[in-house]
Design brief:
- The protein is α/β, with parallel strands linked by helices.
- It has two domains: about 20-160 and about 220-270, 3-Layer(aba) Sandwich (Rossmann fold); about 165-215, no CATH class.
- It contains nine helices and twelve strands.
- It has helices spanning about 5-10, 10-15, 20-25, 30-45, 60-65, 80-90, 95-100, 135-145, 220-230, and strands spanning about 50-55, 75-80, 105, 120-125, 150-160, 170-175, 175-185, 190-200, 205-215, 235-240, 250-255, 265-270.
- An eight-stranded mixed β-sheet has the order 3-2-1-4-5-12-10-11. The chain has a four-stranded antiparallel β-sheet with strand order 6-7-8-9.
- Helix 4 crosses helix 5.
- The radius of gyration is 19 Å and the shape is globular.
- The model has no long low-confidence stretch (mean pLDDT about 95).
- Bound molecules: S-adenosylmethionine.
- The site of S-adenosylmethionine has 17 residues, from strand 2.
Length: about 270
């Protein structure tokens, strides 16, 4: 049987690539990097040049960073060889040779990795919530603090509100597939949560549990306390705005320490060295 005919017999889920779907549904590197650049510039009055992407997954943000400036340099750190290999083939190899010279994909544990100093370090999409013990999260924040240049800034994110402290499934219809964020289990005592990403396709096929995360739902104040204990000098929260009429999340983040919306908040956090 020819490859084409064989492929036709496969369902859309069988033909799909989970990392590609993740990049399309979860990670908006362009938006994140705009936020990082603009916020760093607001605070430090200059442009950041060097960046480390922790929990890098497919290393997408690190690769996009090198396209944004001829001096930009990036390090992507993840301890999973499979996802790094995917990122190498689909993101790194698509860069121009000169850009490739300025990005390094590193297989390592973020708690142990040593990289040259950087202006900005990123831990996005709540990935650091895999660190459930206070001592581990503090150790991680300390190591980021050491890695940053004197005027470096650590960017991370968080979410919360009453809806976060429960189980739920959020559905997003995207081009060619549906993305599901499944907060499958929640222990209100320890704040441990079990989440999954599933994908659904128009031919009714499914990719269940494409990604699985066991996290501690850290609170904003707890994160802030640990950042200060790790040595950061100032911590800022930038909370996402919602449209007052439609209740839809907007692409706008406002620096504040007060959240009016009780059901749900989502924020970028910037910790200055
Ligand atoms: C949800 S993905 C994040 C992908 C991407 N950075 C983003 O913002 O969407 C989380 C990644 O963290 C990696 N990871 C988890 N714990 C880690 C650790 N201690 N050191 C390095 N990588 C880790 C996993 O292998 C996984 O690829």
């Amino acid at each position: 049987m020819s490859k084409k005919k064989k492929d036709k017999k496969l369902t859309m889920a069988q033909r799909a690539d989970r990392h590609e779907l993740y990049q399309e549904s979860v990670q908006d590197s362009e938006f994140e990097l705009d936020f990082v650049q603009d916020t760093y510039k607001d605070i430090r009055k200059k442009k950041p040049v060097t960046l480390r992407e922790d929990f890098a997954g497919t290393s997408r943000s690190a690769c996009v960073w090198t396209k944004r400036g001829k001096d930009n340099r990036a390090y992507a750190v993840d301890f999973d060889q499979e996802v790094l290999d995917w990122g190498h083939e689909h993101n790194y190899m698509k860069l121009k040779p000169k850009q490739r010279e300025r990005v390094e994909l590193i297989k390592a544990d973020v708690l142990k990795v040593k990289t040259p100093p950087v202006d900005v370090c990123l831990a996005f999409n709540f990935s650091y919530w895999i660190l459930q013990e206070r001592k581990d999260l503090k150790k991680y924040f300390r190591s980021v603090h050491r890695t940053l240049n004197d005027d470096g800034i650590f960017f991370l994110d968080g979410f919360g509100g009453s809806e976060a402290h429960t189980t739920s499934v959020e559905k997003h219809k995207l081009k060619g597939f549906t993305y599901l964020w499944d907060q499958n289990k929640y222990n209100p005592l320890t704040q441990e949560m079990q989440c999954y990403i599933h994908f659904r396709f128009p031919d009714k096929s499914k990719m269940d549990k494409a990604f699985s995360y066991t996290w501690r739902l850290w609170g904003g104040h707890e994160i802030e306390d640990l950042l200060y204990e790790a040595g950061f000098s100032n911590v800022r929260f930038y909370v996402q705005k919602f449209d007052e009429k439609t209740d839809e999340a907007l692409d706008e983040f406002e620096e504040t320490r007060v959240v009016e919306e009780h059901e749900c908040w989502i924020a970028y956090i910037a910790a200055e060295k």
